[in-house]
Description:
- The structure holds two protein chains of two kinds.
- Chain A is α+β, with helices and mostly antiparallel strands.
- Chain A has one domain: Beta Polymerase, domain 2 (2-Layer Sandwich), CATH 3.30.460.40.
- Chain A is 45% helix and 24% strand.
- Chain A is built from seven helices and nine strands.
- In chain A, a hairpin with a 2-residue loop joins strand 8 (114-119) and strand 9.
- In chain A, helix 6 runs antiparallel to helix 7.
- In chain A, 40% of the residues are buried.
- Chain B is an all-alpha fold.
- Chain B has a domain at 19-64.
- Helix content of chain B is 58%, strand content 0%.
- Chain B is built from four helices and no strands.
- Chain B has helices spanning 4-10, 22-29, 34-41, 45-64.
- Chain A binds chain B through residues 2-6, 9, 25, 28-33, 35-37, 93, 117, 119-120, 146, 149-150, 152-157, 159-160, and chain B through 19, 21-24, 26-27, 30, 32-34, 36-37, 40-41, 43, 45-46, 48-53, 55-57, 59-60.
Amino acid sequence: MMESLTEILRRLHDAKVEFTLIGGLAARHYGVTLVTEDVDICARFTPENLRRIENAFKDFHPRHRLTAHKMPFELTDELCGRLKNIYLTTDLGILDCLSEVAGVGDFEAVLRQSEAREFPFGCCYIIKMDALIQAKQAAGRPHDLMAVAQLQAIKGKDEQQKNSL
Amino acid sequence: MIDEATLAQMNGEYLMPPDAGPAWRAAFAAGIDMSLLEENLRRTPWERLLANDRALALVRAVQRAKPVDDGIAH
């Protein structure tokens, strides 16, 4: 099966998962040229919402990619209450679900720093550029800082265009 | 006759837009290929995500590529 991060995004939308797009794919959305290998989202970690994520990918062999034997992603009521993050590998690609974002805050804080954007399959929330810059600065890895430099350049260009109108 | 500035651009020198702001110049100074960034900004946001899918497929194909061992230099 072909890896497709856009298909992961569509499945999250269609399953009505409460989430906002963060990370490298959000950076791509704003124009950053770095290729990303996963979908990062900040999601509401309620049992109902986690079950939506489970349902969205149940046909795509989801597994906890960081566990020693890549355990199947099969939720229980007990697990729903204990998970803070979910790192999945699926036939469609890698999906990382976080309950909070360093430099921004928990899901509610991230949602306040997000805006709805129209995609071919419908609307999704995406973290605003300023909050994404904060998150990438907090992460601080070399590729994050490379993305920050690009995001700041794009932001500066956007502001120049707005000012010239 | 091609002038020196055009020749330099043909050879890969980036032509800084006259209205480039400090962040744009800083990104260039940090080694980012600003011509690629300009190309990407011409796409719609959705086109940028689809381009990532295509780039990722290419990365995987390269990762899967096996060395050719037929004794002939390629």
